[in-house]
Amino acid sequence: MFDPLISQSTMRRRNFLGYSFLFLAGCTTAEKLGSSSKVTIPPKLSFAVTDAKGLEELQRDYEPFRVVLEDVLETQIEFFPVDNILDAAPAMLDGTLDLAWAGPSEYVILNSRARAKPIVTLKRPDYFTVIFVHRDRGVRSIADLKGKTIDIWKLGTTASHLGAVKILLDADLKTSNLKLVASESQDLQPLKIGEIDAMARPMSRYQSMLQEAETSADEYPILARGSLLPGDVFVARYQLNSEVAEFISSQILDNRDRLLEAILSSPELANRFRGSTWEVANDTDYDLVRDAYREIGQESIIQ
Predict the structure, then answer these.
(1) Fold classification of 44-125+230-302 (topology level)
(2) What is the mean pLDDT of residues 136-141?
């Protein structure tokens, strides 16, 4: 027979047990939020490097960093290969890509087109552009480059292309008054034989080119040197919870030595990033990159 008193008593006990489980679950969540994790981070984060071409290059050069980052963030970090920055932007915008390591020029594109949020920056002590020549070419000043040809390696690169544009602008020399070519080569021979009149490269690459060619700065003197450029940026997709983004930032900064050591363990990265420091990213530091894009008529890229 149905007994309403027994039924009500049973329901009260069930409700009590249900509320107890909810209370315990809440305590577990609170304990996790108060632990070293601080936030509930996604169980997996996709990670791209905008200037690494394909999975093979990612694994070759960035695997040590990925492993340490995974340990630092206490979550799975999965490589997300991209062929170029135009692949990364839509992937970040639609939430497929969570994190990206981007150079300054790539950052302003991701920030504009995908609303990517800057987390931290990796500043290099010698990250500036140099424009250099061959000693026998008769070029002695920036003014002498008017009407000449400058190899800027690759279109849109920060330290070779945009850094060179900034140097020229500071010297009141418009890019329309000379010819820019993008050889995508690190060979000094075209400069030596006069196919081009000058080259623009980051300082570290200039030094490597001299070393590889077994020559010196006496033969290839620096004509002009730019100011220190802003560092590479680690960005997160805009949909990522702000607490998660802050957690990632704090964990990277708290473990900066381990992460830099991982980067320097890669032969391809060691020369570029030796002596670098992690800092909180400041978007306004990249306005000079935006100015350079405008000067070369590429405003649409960053709008």
Answers:
(1) D-Maltodextrin-Binding Protein; domain 2 (3.40.190)
(2) 93
